[in-house]
Amino acid sequence: QVQLVESGGGLVQAGGSLRLSCAASGSIFSINRMGWYRQAPGNQRELVAAITTGGSTNYADSVKGRFTISRDNAKNTVSLQMNSLKPEDTAVYYCNADIRAWRTFQWSDYWGQGTQVTVSS
What we know:
There is one protein chain. The protein is built from no helices and 11 strands. The chain is mainly β. A hairpin with a 4-residue loop joins strand 7 (67-72) and strand 8 (77-82). The protein is elongated.
């Protein structure tokens, strides 16, 4: 089976930085798009940033210029460097990946368990 495991969340003051990491493991044949989503209390889950296998990226307007997504295809990892954090960035951040597993050989959407990011003012 396939798992996504996140790390790197925590509490930081406004203006500070955090780096989130996510590792995909298990019976993986191939990974396509990887990304980060977030969900604040009372809000819907929203896309923060995504990256393709070839390195093309897209970002939510609210994080452009502050967040950077990257991936290591050989290690099946994706990271999110978050700089100049604001209180409104406070949310649970989820790793997401489009993965083809050996068992099914079908593309499926996988999610991590989520990691809390809290930015204090």
